[in-house]
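F.,

This is the one I mentioned.
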């Protein structure tokens, strides 16, 4: 390609050609729905897994950003594509978010503690169970109040807070389990003091749901009614957790209840798990989770981990495919800009 002296530097031209070639490859890969790059560079045993795909997509997004930012100029406006890539990268890198829902006193907070691997939450959180509470990883414990106007306020960990105007509490905990999965503990849907409508889950960016139901009165009509109002996308991503199952002491109780639940819920949930959070949290308190073996399995915690791993793997794969499709649209937009620049340079060079 010949460029008139003084119009564009050779380095600029080469950079744009490199960016154009790379972006074209991204657009092709996205259209085909195939992995973008060589999986041999991924860690052993990771090729083909959803986490590995996420890592590879993030790496390619980073590379695309570097190339497009270098190729952008006053004559080649790539700002919209760059902003879209940054938003896509941010969504892709966010840990998956599991909402814990159910009626009042169904064991939701205990389940949240169990999944986070902590015995209890800070006082500021315990005193506000009527407010949606997001648990995420942080090196040091911290509590933030997110107000309805999305203003964030750092709170003292061991002090009760006023619930007025708070949209959500966000609690940072030094728990390794929160690296890959954030937990949103929701208020009870039947709590007369607070009513969170099912469609209010949308602003919380939830990826999947664990619904808690009491073992002694599992899956009542009121629960079914609320579940059917939850966004359809989330109804296909749920695990039904039967809590306080240690109270089902008579022989055959669990088997009969499981048969009824399978008949009642049909395909509404990915899995049904019977759980004794009391037993499981006791093992967490004693630091025996890794060595508990049969006790951990008997509590139902092992089955819960397996069910959630399977569900979140499916969700992560779906999110990767969605990100790949978005990446394809962004790449095609950037290509149109770069192709336009190439035509402009060719006309100048003639």
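My design for it:
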């Amino acid at each position: 390609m010949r460029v008139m002296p003084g119009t564009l530097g050779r380095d600029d031209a080469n950079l744009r050609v490199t960016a154009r070639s790379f972006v074209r490859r991204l657009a092709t890969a996205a259209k085909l729905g195939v992995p973008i790059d060589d999986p041999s560079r991924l860690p052993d045993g990771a090729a083909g897994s959803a986490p590995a795909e996420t890592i590879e997509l993030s790496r390619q997004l980073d590379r695309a950003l570097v190339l497009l930012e270098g190729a952008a100029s006053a004559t080649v406006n790539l700002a919209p594509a760059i902003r879209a890539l940054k938003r896509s990268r941010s969504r892709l890198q966010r840990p998956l978010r599991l909402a814990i829902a159910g009626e009042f006193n169904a064991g939701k907070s205990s389940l949240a503690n169990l999944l986070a691997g902590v015995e209890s939450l800070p006082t500021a959180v315990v005193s506000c169970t009527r407010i949606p509470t997001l648990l995420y990883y942080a090196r040091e414990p911290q509590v933030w109040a997110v107000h309805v106007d999305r203003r964030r306020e750092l709170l003292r960990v061991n002090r009760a807070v006023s619930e007025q105007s708070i949209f959500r509490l966000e609690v940072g905990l030094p728990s390794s389990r929160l690296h890959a999965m954030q937990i949103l503990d929701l208020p009870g849907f039947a709590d007369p003091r607070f009513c969170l409508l099912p469609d209010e889950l949308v602003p919380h960016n939830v990826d999947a749901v664990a619904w808690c139901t009491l073992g002694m009165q599992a899956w009542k009509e009121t629960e079914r009614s609320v579940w059917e109002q939850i966004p359809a996308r989330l109804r296909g991503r749920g695990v039904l957790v039967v809590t306080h199952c240690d109270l089902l002491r008579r022989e055959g109780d669990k088997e009969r209840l499981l048969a009824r639940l399978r008949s009642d819920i049909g395909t509404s949930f990915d899995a049904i798990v019977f759980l004794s959070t009391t037993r499981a949290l006791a093992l967490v308190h004693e630091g025996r989770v890794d060595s508990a073996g049969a006790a951990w399995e008997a509590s139902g915690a092992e089955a819960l981990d397996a069910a959630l791993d399977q569900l979140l793997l499916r969700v992560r794969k779906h999110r990767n495919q969605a990100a790949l499709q978005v990446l394809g649209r962004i790449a095609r937009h950037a290509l149109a800009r770069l192709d336009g620049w190439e035509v402009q340079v060719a006309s100048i060079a003639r």
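The longest strand covers residues 166-173.

Talk soon.
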